[in-house]
Specification:
It is a single chain. The chain is mainly β and 362 residues long. It folds into three domains: 93 residues, DNA Polymerase III, subunit A, domain 2 (DNA Polymerase III, Chain A, domain 2), CATH 3.10.150.10; 126 residues, DNA Polymerase III, Chain A, domain 2 (Roll), CATH 3.10.150.10; 120 residues, DNA Polymerase III, subunit A, domain 2 (DNA Polymerase III, Chain A, domain 2, Roll), CATH 3.10.150.10. It has five helices and 26 strands. The protein has a nine-stranded antiparallel β-sheet.
């Protein structure tokens, strides 16, 4: 088998595989497999939990497959891969790949039947919003990851929690199966976001086959992965909006600037910040518990008639605000408890963003 492709394409795939799996010592993860069906050539990479495949602009003389370790770099504008029964060469240089095997997909491609379709950009943005809230403990089989599920309202709901906060994001989707069919529920880790950013397609179709989740782009790019969770029932922790002590409306841009000005504290994992509002005033005061530095944020709605005081971890709020558009107005519902407060965060007049953050004790 002979394959001819651009040197830039070869190096781009090689560099990605090397960087993505730089901490993985298993040979299969530190290589790129090239598969030819006689007409098209595909590149395939894995970390043994995720599998990534995309078409490559290349020429092949027949069907076949080969695997090339990421240690083999090229500087020529064109790469010639030549494989015989006994030898593999790149631009006439012999490749030693005895410890490597061609990556196999965990699911037959002819059995993929997607359930929902959405825009790739929407899914990327939603993952960026919810991923900061997922547990960082890779051994936690409940919440180490993001839940993605199709809803009956032609949407995908993504959510993640670390028990201190819950992030949820809805994006438009088209169901590709009857509404009374089994709806889609997938679980994913940050690797999905990494791989989605390597795709070039505009739309993606998602599905699941046995225990393997997958998505296919409109450019025939494929991502498969295996990740399951015993994800909790998040509906149980969402408070009744009618029981909110107070609802505050502020500029997203102004709140983001205030938190940024308060700054980050060296060696501090949680930044306790007091949020205070005096009766009949429209200035929300944010005060850093450690430095006593304060910032003011203007309130957009009617001021309260009683004193409001609660504490938040501003690092959690800072992460929350990173993926919310700056021109929006935030609606913060405060649920006072005995010595702390739960806060619900939404965009005013929008139902696509939601966060629930457990406050710090006063």
């Amino acid at each position: 088998m002979q394959i001819k492709l651009h040197g830039t394409d070869y190096e781009r795939l090689r560099n990605f595989a090397a960087q993505w799996n730089k901490r993985n010592t298993i040979p299969a993860t530190r290589a790129v497999s090239y598969i030819s069906d006689g007409e098209k050539v595909y590149a395939r990479i894995t970390n043994l939990q995720y599998w990534f495949q995309r078409p490559v602009f290349a020429q092949a003389d027949k069907k076949g497959a080969c695997v090339i370790p990421t240690s083999y770099t090229v500087s020529e504008p064109v790469v010639h891969i030549h494989q015989t029964k006994t030898k593999l060469t790149i631009n006439d240089k012999t490749v030693q790949n005895d410890d490597y095997e061609v990556v196999a997909l965990p699911v037959p491609e002819d059995q993929l039947q997607p359930i929902a379709r959405c825009y790739r950009a929407d899914l990327i943005h939603a993952l960026r919003f919810v991923l900061p809230a997922m547990s960082k403990d890779s051994n936690d089989q409940r919440i180490y990851g993001v839940r993605i599920r199709a809803t009956e309202s032609q949407q995908l709901l993504l959510e993640a929690t670390d028990t201190h906060r819950l992030h949820r994001k809805w994006i438009p989707a088209k169901l590709l199966v009857p509404e009374n069919a089994h709806l889609l529920t997938l679980y994913a880790t940050p690797d999905l976001l990494v791989l989605l950013q390597q795709l070039t397609g505009t739309t993606i179709s998602l599905g699941i086959h046995d225990t393997t989740a997958y998505l296919i782009s409109d450019r025939n790019e494929l991502i498969c992965w295996q990740h399951e969770l015993a994800f909790p029932n998040t509906e149980r922790v969402i408070p009744n909006p009618e029981n909110a002590t107070m609802t505050l409306r502020v500029s997203t841009h102004a709140l983001r600037n205030a938190i940024k000005t308060l700054g980050r504290l060296k060696g501090v994992q949680h930044a306790k910040t007091y949020v205070e509002l005096e009766p009949n005033t429209t200035q929300l005061t944010l005060t850093c518990a450690e430095t006593k530095q304060s910032q003011l944020v203007t309130l957009y709605n009617e001021p309260p008639t009683e004193h409001i005081l609660f504490a938040i971890d501003r690092y959690l709020v800072e992460q929350l605000l990173q993926e919310i558009p700056s021109h929006t107005t935030l609606e913060i519902a405060v649920h006072q408890r005995s010595d702390y407060a739960l806060t619900e965060w939404r965009i005013y007049n929008s139902s696509t963003y939601y966060a629930l953050i457990s406050g710090m004790r006063l």
